[in-house]
C-alpha cells in the first residue's frame, strides 16, 4: 500500500511539475510577410515547454511540425507563413490537457524592399563603438534582464569598457560623412555580458539583443535610418563560429551537440586545412571544431536546428535594421558547407545584399578559394561576395619599409595584383591598411607621414573595396603586441571630459588636417575616375 501511495505521489508531483510552464524566449521574436521563403522555424525556450501541445489557429500561418530535442525546456516549431498573409498578429498557444498554460502573440510585418549592397565605389569606415564616442552616459551602468551586468566602464583600463555607444556614432555622422565615407561598419554591438574584455563585441551572449551599454535595438535601427538619410550604408558585423561561454543557452543547452567538443580542445587556426586535400582529419577537426579561445564555445552548425537559428538571425537583422551588408567574422572556421548554405539562403531572400567574410589567410589561393564562383574551389561554391584581402595587406605593410629588390618593395604589391586571375571578382576584394586586430598603419610606417600617404594612395586607388579604420585619419598609433587595447584607443573628443576634440578642425594638428584633406581629395578622384 505504501509503495502504491508513493507511486501516486510521484505521478502527482510529475504532473504538477509539467504544468509549471515558464515561457521565456521565442526566437526569432517576430517575422515578416512577403518573404521568398515562407518557412519559419521558431526556437521556444521555457521550463517544461516540451510538455505542452502547441496550437496555432490563424489565417496567417499554419503549424507544420513540432520538434522536441534532448532538453525538455526547448521546442522547435516549423511554421508556414501563408502566401496571402498580411501584416498583423497571431497567437501561439501552449496547452496542457486543453488548457492554455502560456501564450505568445507573434507579430508579422511587411518585408522592406529596397536596393542594398556595397561595392568598390564605396569607402567603408570601420569603428569600434565602445572606443568612438559616448553619446549617452546614462547607459554606462545598465541592468541586464537575465544576468547581472558584469563589467562596468573604466577608461583607465585599455582592455575594459570605456562607454562608447551607438548614440555616440549617430552624433558624429557629419564628421564621418565629411571624410568621404559612404558605408559604416561597426564592430559587433550585440549583448556581450562577460566579466572582462566585453567591449569588443565578439563574445555574444544574446544574438537578438543589442548590448544595453551600447543602447537598444531601436537605437541600432535609428543609426541605420540616419545613415540612409545621408545616402550612406550600414554593414553589420556577425559571428557564427562561436558565442560566449556566458550566452544564455550555455547554462541549459538544447542538446549535447549544440557546441563542438570542449574548452580544452582549441582550434589550430590553420585555415589551409579547409582546402588542402592532403590535410589530416585531426588537423581539419581542430580547425573547424576547436574553440577559438577557451571562453568562446565553438558552435556546431551541423546541428540542423542551430543552423536554421543562425541563418534566420541574419535574415531577421537585415529586415529589422534594413542592412546593406554583413561582415561575417572568422569565416573559414565554421563548417564551410554551412557557410555556403548561409550565404545562399540570405541571397535568396535579398539578392543584392553584399556578404563579406573575414578570410584571414596569408596566401592568394587560400583567399580566392572562399569567393563566390571561384574557379579554383572545385565543386565548392561559397556564394560569398567579398573576402578580406590579407595578402595585399601584408604586401602593403612591408612595401614601403624596405629597399626595392627582385621581390621586395613595390614588387610585393605588384606580385599580389599579378595573381588577380585567381579571384572570381578581384574588384570585390575588401582592402585595408589595418583594422581592430592589427598594428596601426602609421605605427607600421615608423610615423613617417610620406610613407603613410603612399599606403593611403594604394588603399584608395587599387582595385577592391577600401576600408578606413577609425582614427587613421588623425594618425592614431599603436602596436598589437602592446595589447589590443592599444590599437583600439578612444577617439579624442568622444567623451565630455576629453581635453582634445579631433572631431573639429581646431582639435587636430596641422599634419592631421592635411592628411584628412588628402584623404578626401583622393576619394573624390577615385569616384570621378569610376
What this model shows, in words?
The chain has 530 residues and is an alpha/beta fold. The protein has helices at 2-19, 166-171, 173-178, 217-229, 281-289, 304-321, 336-349, 364-368, 390-399, 410-417, 441-444, 449-461, 510-529; strands spanning 22-27, 30-33, 39-47, 53-55, 61-68, 74-81, 88-96, 99-110, 124-127, 183-186, 190-191, 206-210, 233-238, 325-328, 354-357, 386-387, 430-432, 465-469. Helix 6 (304-321) packs parallel to helix 7 and helix 12 (449-461) runs parallel beside helix 13.
- If you average the pLDDT, what whole number results? 92
Kindly report the name of the CATH homologous superfamily of the largest domain: Glycosidases
CATH topology of the largest domain: TIM Barrel
Kindly state the number of beta strands.
18
Strand order of the largest sheet: 16-15-14-13-10-9-18-17
Gross morphology is globular
What is the rounded distance between the termini?
Answer: 90 Å
Task: Please give the CATH architecture of the largest domain.
Answer: Alpha-Beta Barrel
Unreliable residue runs: 1-18
Instruction: Estimate nothing, just give the exact number of structural domains.
Output: 2
Amino acid at each position: 500500500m505504501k509503495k502504491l501511495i508513493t507511486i501516486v505521489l510521484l505521478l502527482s508531483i510529475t504532473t504538477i511539475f509539467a504544468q509549471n510552464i515558464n515561457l521565456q524566449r521565442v526566437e526569432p521574436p517576430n517575422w515578416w510577410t512577403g518573404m521568398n521563403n515562407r518557412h519559419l522555424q521558431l526556437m521556444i525556450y521555457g521550463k517544461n515547454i516540451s510538455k505542452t501541445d502547441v496550437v496555432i489557429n490563424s489565417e496567417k500561418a499554419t503549424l507544420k511540425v513540432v520538434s522536441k530535442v534532448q532538453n525538455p525546456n526547448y521546442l522547435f516549431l516549423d511554421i508556414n507563413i501563408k502566401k496571402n498573409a498580411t501584416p498583423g498578429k497571431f497567437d501561439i498557444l501552449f496547452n496542457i490537457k486543453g488548457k492554455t498554460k502560456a501564450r505568445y502573440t507573434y507579430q508579422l510585418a511587411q518585408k522592406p524592399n529596397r536596393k542594398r549592397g556595397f561595392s568598390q565605389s564605396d569607402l567603408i569606415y570601420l569603428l569600434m563603438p565602445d572606443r568612438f564616442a559616448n553619446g549617452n552616459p546614462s547607459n554606462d551602468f545598465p541592468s541586464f534582464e537575465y544576468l547581472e551586468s558584469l563589467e562596468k566602464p573604466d577608461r583607465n583600463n585599455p582592455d575594459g569598457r570605456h562607454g562608447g555607444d551607438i548614440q555616440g556614432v549617430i552624433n558624429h555622422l557629419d564628421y564621418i560623412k565629411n571624410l568621404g565615407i559612404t558605408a559604416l561598419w561597426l564592430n559587433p554591438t550585440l549583448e556581450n555580458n562577460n566579466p572582462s574584455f566585453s567591449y569588443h563585441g565578439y563574445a555574444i551572449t544574446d544574438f537578438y539583443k543589442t548590448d544595453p551599454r551600447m543602447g537598444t535595438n531601436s537605437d541600432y535601427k535609428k543609426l541605420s535610418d540616419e545613415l540612409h538619410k545621408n545616402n550612406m550604408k550600414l554593414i553589420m558585423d556577425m559571428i557564427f563560429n562561436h558565442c560566449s561561454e556566458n550566452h544564455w543557452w550555455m547554462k541549459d543547452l538544447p542538446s549535447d551537440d549544440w557546441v563542438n567538443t570542449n574548452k580544452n580542445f582549441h582550434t589550430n587556426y590553420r585555415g589551409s586545412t579547409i582546402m588542402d586535400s592532403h590535410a589530416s582529419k585531426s588537423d581539419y577537426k581542430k580547425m573547424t571544431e576547436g574553440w577559438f579561445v577557451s571562453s568562446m564555445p565553438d558552435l556546431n552548425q551541423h546541428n540542423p536546428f542551430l543552423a536554421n537559428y543562425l541563418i534566420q538571425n541574419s535574415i531577421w537583422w537585415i529586415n529589422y535594421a534594413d542592412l546593406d551588408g554583413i561582415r561575417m567574422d572568422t569565416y573559414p572556421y565554421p563548417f564551410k558547407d554551412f557557410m555556403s548554405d548561409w550565404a545562399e539562403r540570405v541571397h535568396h531572400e535579398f539578392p543584392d545584399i553584399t556578404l563579406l567574410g573575414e578570410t584571414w589567410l596569408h596566401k592568394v589561393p587560400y583567399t580566392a578559394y572562399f569567393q563566390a564562383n571561384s574557379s579554383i574551389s572545385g565543386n565548392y561554391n561559397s556564394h560569398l561576395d567579398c573576402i578580406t584581402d590579407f595578402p595585399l595587406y601584408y604586401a602593403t605593410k612591408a612595401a614601403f619599409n624596405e629597399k626595392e629588390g627582385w621581390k621586395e618593395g613595390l614588387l610585393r604589391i605588384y606580385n599580389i595584383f599579378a595573381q588577380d586571375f585567381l579571384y572570381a571578382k578581384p574588384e570585390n576584394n575588401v582592402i585595408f591598411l589595418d583594422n581592430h586586430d592589427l598594428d596601426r598603419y602609421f605605427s607600421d610606417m615608423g610615423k613617417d607621414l610620406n610613407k603613410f600617404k603612399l599606403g593611403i594612395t594604394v588603399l584608395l586607388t587599387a582595385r577592391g573595396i577600401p576600408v578606413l579604420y577609425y582614427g587613421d585619419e588623425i594618425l592614431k598609433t599603436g602596436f598589437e603586441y602592446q595589447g589590443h587595447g592599444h590599437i583600439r584607443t578612444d577617439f579624442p573628443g568622444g567623451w565630455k571630459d576629453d581635453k582634445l576634440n579631433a572631431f573639429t578642425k581646431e582639435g587636430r594638428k596641422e599634419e592631421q588636417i592635411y592628411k584628412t584633406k588628402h584623404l578626401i581629395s583622393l576619394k573624390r578622384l577615385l569616384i570621378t575616375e569610376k
